[in-house]
Amino acid sequence: MKSKISAVHTAGRHSIFVGSGLAAMAIAGLLAARPASAAYEVVAVTNGGTIDGVVTLSGSPPAGAAIKVTKNQDYCGATIPDPSYTVGAGGGLANVIVYLKDITKGKAAPAEPLALVNEHCMFSPRAQGAMVGGQIKISSDDPVLHNTHPQNAETNATIYNIALPFKGFSVTKPLPGSPGLIKIKCDAHEWMHAWIMELDHPYYATTGADGHFTLKDVPPGNYTLVAWHEVAGEKTEPVVVAAGQTAKSKITLATK
Q1: Which label site among 71, 204, 207, 215 has the fewest CB atoms less than 10 Å from its CB?
Q2: Residue 146: which domain range?
Q3: What is the pTM of this model?
Q4: Coil, strand, or helix at residue 110?
């Protein structure tokens, strides 16, 4: 069963704006059930370890149909490949947000703003983590009118709506003040979507084209690692981090 994204949190298997109702409900339940963690404390991490891992996709991803471009075809092209599943060699899955669950102390957040670029009629990056209290720099590399419209993924409430009228235009805005999933769309180009997982700590990463990710300066301890993907959903894995050591992790998500 398929449904258009309205109050759901995931993009679809055959086009960017079509999704599995079951997958959407599962992700919605996971987000709603996620408890608020204790206030995060910034401390000096002198004996931290590293988590080095890869997220793979089991099975062959569905062959998504090319997305028909309905506006600015002279610049965007007639069609755009469906990026819902981006799978590299060995089944590595890109655009998976990986983070530690309920970590309460550790390193400071990055000082620079998050970046989101409107680039050749798509958002880049497609998925990324962020820390509560940070900022996001939204910019356009395209000579066509875009708007960047972030929404609370659970309620669809608009956070703000930024018009980007010309190439080189940029604006920096604050992120919302509480953890949660943010979905981003361009109202002018309905196929454009991106995702931000806002967290109350800085231990997050997004998998690259080969599915690889790294979390550094992690205080020694036992943790739960979470991997989230817009279509394949969410999965958790335990991980043990030892002082000065690298913990290896492999997470497999299933095709939906």
Answers
A1: 71
A2: 2-254
A3: 0.84
A4: coil
